[in-house]
Specification:
about 270 residues, J domain-containing protein, DnaJ_domain, DNAJC8, J_dom_sf
Length: about 270
């Protein structure tokens, strides 16, 4: 008696479908996903503009793969083709009735392409993708462990390839948003430091100007101060001389030349 796949009884293992079926299911999922992406890629101009400017686009559009609707790791030639198609669809010249929003959408598409065209920024984008995939796998393993502790089958929703890819996609968006938030905080910090430094420089410059003005006025008034001092000295000398003269006059009036005061005459008494 030959053994059947999945065990002696031929019953599939409780943790999921037999390994032979998994690639088939994933291929079916992936084919459907690519077909959906293909349908989305040929949305009308107004629909593409709406997609690129929908709520949350400020952070959504930080992810160039999301903007261009491509998978990370897409060959550069395919990236270029997708960029050309999208840029034509949302170009302001083709959407003159909605020119302002079309320009914003076009700018988002162009920025995304430039990020992926530059090797250094492309490498950083792929690092974000790899980090998201790694974190998602760790989170899935933690969920499995928790399931086991609770006595439940170690099956999680991310076992579904579509759910796993969606979880990675969401985390990629979050990581790009976190990087942008940190960039803005760092930029604000640099701006604040520059403003503080400039304020200090202006304060030092103000003090220097005040000191310079004071020294200038001090020098200009030097002659006046010297003249005033001379006048004061001269006036003091004259005043002292007058006082001495007055003292001499009093002394002359008070004393006789003989150096004593003659006695007063008394009336005779009879």
């Amino acid at each position: 008696m030959s053994r059947m796949p999945g065990g002696a009884s031929g019953v599939p293992p409780p943790n999921g479908p037999p390994p032979s079926e998994t690639p088939v299911n994933f291929d079916a999922f992936y084919s459907e996903l690519k077909a959906t992406e293909k349908r989305d890629s040929v949305l009308t101009s107004s629909q593409q503009i709406e997609r690129l400017l929908r709520p949350g686009s400020t952070y959504r559009n930080l992810n160039p793969f999301e903007v261009l609707q491509i998978d990370p790791g897409t060959p550069s030639e395919e990236v270029r083709k997708k960029y050309r198609r999208l840029s034509i669809l949302v170009h302001p010249d083709k959407n003159q009735n909605d020119g302002e929003r079309a320009q914003a959408a076009f700018d988002a598409v162009k920025k995304a392409y430039e990020m992926l065209e530059d090797k250094s920024t492309l490498a950083r984008c792929m690092e974000v993708v790899e980090e998201a995939e790694g974190r998602t796998k760790l989170a899935v393993e933690e969920k499995r462990k928790l399931q086991k502790k609770q006595g439940l089958p170690p099956v999680v929703e991310e076992d579904d390839p579509a759910k796993f890819k969606q979880a990675v996609h969401v985390l990629i968006m979050k990581l790009f948003a976190d990087l942008e938030r940190k960039r803005r905080l760092n930029e604000q910090k640099i701006s604040d430091n520059a403003a503080k430094k400039r304020a200090e420089e202006l304060e030092v410059e103000h003090r220097r100007n005040v000191e310079k003005e004071f020294n200038k006025n001090w020098e200009e008034s030097r002659q006046g101060r010297v003249s005033s001092w001379h006048d004061f000295q001269t006036g003091s000398a004259k005043e002292k001389g007058l006082k001495k003269e007055k003292k001499k006059e009093k002394k002359v009036k008070k004393f006789s030349p003989m150096g004593f005061r003659p006695p007063k005459n008394k009336p005779e008494s009879r």
